[in-house]
Amino acid sequence: MTFFQDLQKVLRQNVREYGMYIALFVIMAIFTVLTDGLFLSPRNISNLINQMGYIAVLAVGMTLVIVIRHIDLSVGFLAGFLGAIAAILMVQQGLPAVAVVPLVLVLGVIAGLITAFLIVYFGIPAFVATLAGWLIYRGLLLQATMGTGTIIIPNADFNAIGNGFIPDIPGLDFIPGHALTLLLGIVAIVFFVLGQINDRKRKKTYGFEVLPGAIFALKLVFISAIVGLVAWVMASYNGISWTAVIVLLVVGVYHFITTRTVLGRHIYAVGGNPEAADLSGVSVKKITYVVFASMGFLTALSGILFTSRLQSATTTAGTLFELDAIAAAYVGGVSAAGGVGSIIGSLIGALVMASLSNGMNLMGIDISIQYIARGAVLALAVIFDAANRRRGA
Amino acid sequence: MGSGRTELALSLFGNSIGYQVKGDLYLNGQKQQFKQPEDAIEAGLAYVTEDRKAKGLILIQDVKQNITLANLPEIARRGVVDNEAEIRVANEYRTSLNIKTPSIEQKVRNLSGGNQQKVSLGKWLFVKPNVLILDEPTRGIDVGAKFEIYTLMNGLVEQGMSIIMISSELPEVLGMSDRVYVVASGRITGELPIEEATQEKIMQLATS
Description:
The complex is a heterodimer of chains A (about 400) and B (about 210).
Chain A: H1 2-13, H2 15-34, H3 42-67, H4 75-91, H5 97-121, H6 126-144, E1 151-152, H7 156-163, H8 179-205, H9 213-235, H10 242-260, H11 262-272, H12 274-279, H13 284-310, E2 312-313, H14 321-331, H15 343-362, H16 367-390
Antiparallel strand pairs in A: 1-2
Chain B: H1 5-12, E1 25-27, E2 30-32, H2 37-42, E3 45-48, H3 52-56, H4 63-68, E4 76-77, E5 80-81, H5 83-96, H6 113-125, E6 131-135, H7 143-158, E7 162-166, H8 170-176, E8 179-184, E9 187-193, H9 199-207
Parallel strand pairs in B: 3-6, 6-7
Antiparallel strand pairs in B: 1-2, 4-5, 8-9
């Protein structure tokens, strides 16, 4: 009995955080049932992750942009434009992928700095500055692909980023499926469990509130099971894709920066109260430059992932990416009021939105209904947030 | 209001954007120029704002994050915050300032005015300033907390800290000060050693 009382209390206190996981779980379960298991098939999960990759990295960057009370509408067509640049450099200039990728990432950072310059130096609202960017990058994308139309990329290295899988360890044929993927899954679970146990112990020594033992165990089992399941499903297909590796790396690095570093603290301080942050010696200008530079970097990465996935640069690449990324961030719990929002949350948000599209596609639901359903989920998530805040949670 | 005291304090603190400011700033006989609050903090200044909700605290963050915000490098190694050190620092100020909160992980929004003011003070004491500027430090807080803040101020001065207190409450000014400057319409209209300061004289300078 006390276990369920505890569970109720914990769920009520962290309704937003756990609600998201539960929502994702429910959505996945529903689609699995409705598609007779097709949704959870290894091939589909692998596809789903590769489809969401380029939105997920945008959502990570957008989270920080929204946290500091700005918005970036230009990222979609900037991603498309930078993807086209990458294609042109490889196809027309004959540069190798290893040179093109870093070059495009640098261009992304520069584009982000230009946006920040408009906002910081001229005081233009981010909405307007990046709307201008939206138009300009759309025009530049059309310019870049004008003579050629769609540019097909014959570069195998580059195309592997969006379509390839990590190699397996040779000589482990007795393990069914992709051995390295299983191994990585196990390592991830072990690190997660040990980290959580350590964290809980540390918190206890300082007298902070921690989860009751049974619920803590339940949480560990639940998350370990999901990680294990995903690893197992992927291992029975081709293993982890390079896209998944890149997304996990980006999420890991950004999660660390936002939760553990001085820079992360400064970003959330600027978002929470810009004036107080400024008077505390945190340069709001500097943080704005850093956040938009990071957004530009991730936009370039998104463009590379998308272009590589299609193995070509198209004239409409990046259309609506910015809105998908913004929606993912809001579903993930970011607040427009600033200072609130987590990287993991936005990743889950991106997963929720991608699962909806993917699941409805599998079921053959018309695109018109898909838009309505995704809009409803976005509205629900934000209504849920607003109600939560009023309650003071 | 409108006398220009807060504007003066902010311009000392490197935040004069938007104000018409002329003049030189000397600290320990050395001329200083602060382009931003960061420089002023570096030089040993601290400014506790009168408007703690709008300009002082990050209400949606917890007590410990607020206390360490202005001096994070002190508890960080190569840019990574040392959580244990942060907890130690926050608990230190919680005890020494008698901040009443269920936990240092409590959101500052949920504290009373007096305790919010103490968090704000704790944050600025943690930068270990030589000169502490307190802008209306007792506005909107209860008598008990007021007394605690006065006691704290006296203790800090004994330890060698210089305090500039901005206040419109004359009893407070006369009770706490060693020297009184009167500011009216953006100018310093008079300087009084505490022996000569009376309510009448101050009012005269303030309205002249």
